[in-house]
Amino acid sequence: MQIQVVKSKIHRVKVTGADLNYIGSITIDEALLAASNIIEGEKVSIVNINNGERFDTYAIKGEKNSGIITLNGPAARKVQKDDIIIIISYATLEFEEAKTFKPWIIFPNENDNSLT
Questions:
Q1: According to the model, what pLDDT value does residue 111 have?
Q2: pTM summary value
Q3: Which residues, at least 6 apart from 32, have a Cβ–Cβ distance to it below 8 Å?
Q4: How far is CA 46 from the centre of its chain?
């Protein structure tokens, strides 16, 4: 039997922009992607702390150490600049493997989305 578990989580980052006219996705600072083990193109779930919205999109790489967190395309309607969000990705594992799996969970600085 296989189950889905949290693979990666970027806990509480500030949205720096929303670009309705972009094709779609979420742009995430490359340093945050690396620290959370999320790769470009990976499906991610977004949870908006400010308004309760939950939706899925995919990650694209933003400039390293820029703090960028921009929702693009239709997802831009679900957030506003300065909203606080959680970004989560999942993995499908065998049940026994899932029992010992340790996810990559990071807690960036909410003020500037830095890792320090």
A1: 93
A2: 0.96
A3: 10, 13, 38, 69, 106, 108, 113, 115
A4: 6
